[in-house]
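ok so i was messing around last nite and threw this chain in just to see what happens. nothing serious, just curious
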Amino acid sequence: MNFALTIAGFDGSAGAGILADVKAMAHFGVYCESVCTALTQQNEDEFVAPGWVIWDRIEAQLETLFKKRTFKYVKIGLVEKAKVLKRIVEFIREKSPDAYIVWDPIASASAGFHFLRAAEQNKFMPVMKQIDLVTPNQDEFGFLGFEQAAAKGTFEFGKDFALLLKGGHSKGPEAVDLLWDRDGKQYKFTSPRLPGGGKHGTGCHLSSAILANLALGHTLPESCQIAKDYLTELLKSGEGRLAKDF
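result:
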């Protein structure tokens, strides 16, 4: 059995967060275990409160799961601040030094609630350099300051870590994702932009699908393409803003 771990927030609507991660990985036959970073108060249309879990409880959850197995594939989602992300990454690197870590940074909820604070902006880059793949959307790409860091010479696309810039929030008839891989190559993944208001938790599903396919032995570009195709079908499923498996 292929195992993976998600460290993310709990969304009661099951459209995003831990429950979405578990569903996405299960779709590909990967068994996903989970650690909760936030007990959010939300549905697919409204975000009320983040309900942050304190570090001691996050660490206790990690300790218990790592007593049973060493996870080689780990996804991190919603975190309160850079310090929490740093502690999570350090824990994983200590317990499983060769683990492949994906971070899907969540700057704000689709309902408008903002998680990451401007005062934290410069604290994320040193932590991200200990991560294998980061998957920001357009807003998160700007918040995390990738272009400014590259201009200053403190970050190089595809060298410090792989970066997937998601195109779902951009304009135009196609949704284009750009991947800078660690091999120095750039890849483009394109899908038609579907009409309607979109689904809740698409970033969670995409990053989890990528991790699941990495756990199955696919390369990163292959995993991104498979995940892109999966997300396209997911966007067509269900009614309203909640997607269903297919």
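not much to say yet. The first strand starts at residue 3 and ends at 10.
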